[in-house]
Structure formats: C-alpha cells, structure tokens
C-alpha cells in the first residue's frame, strides 16, 4: 500500500469528491495530456495567449467533454501554479536552469509536477510514467531519463515512500 504524500510544501487543491477524470480511460487521459503539453508549449514558446491556445487546441480535437475538461484543468493548473512549479523545478535540476532546458521537457516537467504536487487522486507513479512516455514520444530517450530523475527526486522529497515505489526503472 502506498504511503500518503507529505504535502507540507504546498496546499493541495480542494477535492472532496472523486474527480471526473478518474472515469476516463487511460488512452483518453494520455490524449488529454498530449493536448495539454501542446498548449503549454505554444504558450511558452510562441507566446500565444493561454485562452486562445487552449480554445484552438480543444476545437481541433475529437476528444469528448470529460477529456477536454481534464486538458483544461491541467493547463490552467500549471499556469496558476507556474511560479511555485518553476521554483521547485529550478531547485531539483541543479546546474540545469529550467530556461535552458528544452521547452518540451520543461513543459512535460511542469505538467507532471502539477499533478504530483497538487492532484491527490493521481498516483505519483502514474504522473512519472506518463511524463516519461511523453518525453519519449515528443523529445528524446535521454529526456525521459532526465524527467524520470527530476520527478523521482520530487516524490522522494515529499513522501515517505521508497524510490522503487515511484520511480520507473525501465527508462
């Protein structure tokens, strides 16, 4: 059984009920994460206004309403907590300033860190696994290893769990 996460560094989002995205299939959640990554990348690199980037992305997908809501929650959550996430990212990636990281990697990390820090109903191992898979698909194999290491460190710093419990070993 997974030990509870210590959320002492931040207050988690208030969620007194089961989130809607738990009813989504794994495939739908993965697609939603891919769209969210695309939107975050556009906002970060092309400086497209967030609402415009999100609206355009959602209009051009065949995702159902629940998947679109999950995408929106990820994007808005990352943007709302960007300062905290980036400060934590900077402290975890010593010698590799987030602004020097490839933008795809930086935004994958931001999204996964948002899930790990602020969303109680998504296990850290799932967030890490999904982030590594996104890196393998949209970046490089080495990026997957880097992302796994950064997120594993985040989880170890904020849980009483063990490395084997949260960090992928097949990257």
Main attributes of the structure:
globular; disordered N terminus; mainly alpha; 171 residues
General description of the model:
The protein is mainly alpha-helical and 171 residues long. It is 64% helix and 0% strand. It contains 8 helices and no strands. It has helices spanning 26-46, 50-59, 65-80, 82-92, 103-118, 124-138, 141-157, 163-166. Helix 1 crosses helix 2 (50-59) and helix 5 (103-118) runs parallel beside helix 7 (141-157). The radius of gyration is 15 Å and the shape is globular. It starts with 25 loop residues before the first helix and ends in a 5-residue tail after the last helix. Mean pLDDT is 83; it is low at 1-16 and 161-169.
Overall geometric form: globular
Number of strands: 0
Q: Oligomer, anyone?
A: single chain
- Sheet-strand content, in percent, reads under 5%
| Helix share bin | 55-70%
Structural class by secondary-structure content = mainly alpha
Secondary-structure element sequence? HHHHHHHH
Largest sheet: none
Contiguous uncertain segments of 5+ residues: 1-16, 161-169
Amino-to-carboxy terminus distance? 24 Å
Rg to the nearest angstrom?
A: 15 Å
Helical segment count: 8
